[in-house]
Amino acid sequence: MPSVPAEGTHAPYENRPTLYVCISCRREGTPEAPDGAKPEGRRLYDAVRGLVSELGPAAPVHAVPTICFANCESGCSAAIAAPGKWSYLMGRLGPEHAADLLTYAAAYTKAATGVVLPSGRPASLQHAVIARFPAHLDGAHLDAAHLYATHLDDAQLDQAKDAAE
After folding, report:
1. How many CB atoms lie within 10 A of CB 65?
2. Four-CA torsion 62, 63, 65, 66, nearest 10 degrees
3. What angle (nearest 5°) sits at the alpha carbon of residue 32, between those of residues 29 and 37?
4. Can you tell me the distance from the alpha carbon of 145 to that of 143, in angstroms, rounded to the nearest whole number?
5. All residues at 6 or more sequence positions from 89 whose CB lies less than 8 Å from its CB, including other chains
6. Per-residue pLDDT tens for 50-71?
7. Are 144 and 109 in contact (CB under 8 A)?
8. What digits encode the pLDDT tens for the residues 8-51?
9. Mind listing the pLDDT tens digit for each residue in 82-128?
10. pLDDT of residue 4
11. What does the pLDDT read at residue 14?
12. Which fold has domain 4-164?
């Protein structure tokens, strides 16, 4: 299945990041949901969407369902992205992570480049990042990696490298 937004969703137009949640995911080692039961990914999306709805305009992200990140060995999966920022794919999630995903999204929103070190994430998400992807930037912006590197001293850069390994 392609990783595309699920039918009926729209690209965000406000200045908030988008949190994509795979609605077809299930956790590694769990059986497929029985007929009529929602997969864990769908339950995660429903929990995130419920919190976003409760927060209304104060929500730190748009929640968008998507189908398959091809990260099945580390499902359930979600990704966060915003123009001019690094994008992150997270895995090993479940419905119980919904509130922590919004806490992480708030930190991501505040970070100029989207970089939130593990120590700045909720404990349940400190090791959830599977991959990150560079920002798609136009000529009006500096490269996120350059911004990140120039805002950290050598000790912070070493700490970030160690955390990424």
Report:
1. 21
2. 60
3. 130
4. 5
5. 69, 71, 77, 78, 79, 129, 130, 131, 132, 133
6. 999 999 989 999 999 998 888 8
7. no
8. 444 444 678 999 999 987 776 666 766 777 888 899 999 999 99
9. 988 999 999 999 999 999 999 999 999 999 999 999 999 999 999 99
10. 46
11. 62
12. Glutaredoxin (3.40.30)
* Exposure b/e, 16-54, CB count within 10 A at least 16 = b: bbbbbbbbbbbbeeeeeeeeeeebbbbbbbbbbbebbee
Q: Is the peptide bond before 22 cis (omega within 30 degrees of 0)?
A: no
What tokens does 1 get?
């299945």
Q: Is 91 in contact with 77 (CB distance < 8 Å)?
A: yes
Query: Tokens 């091809």 identify what position?
Result: 70
Domain ranges across the chain: 4-164
Count of other CB atoms within 10 angstroms of residue 3: 15
DSSP code of residue 122 = -
Contact 109, 17 (CB under 8 A): yes
SS3 content of the chain, % helix, strand, coil (to 5): 40, 15, 45
Residue 13 in 3-state DSSP?
A: coil
**158 or 80, greater pLDDT:** 80
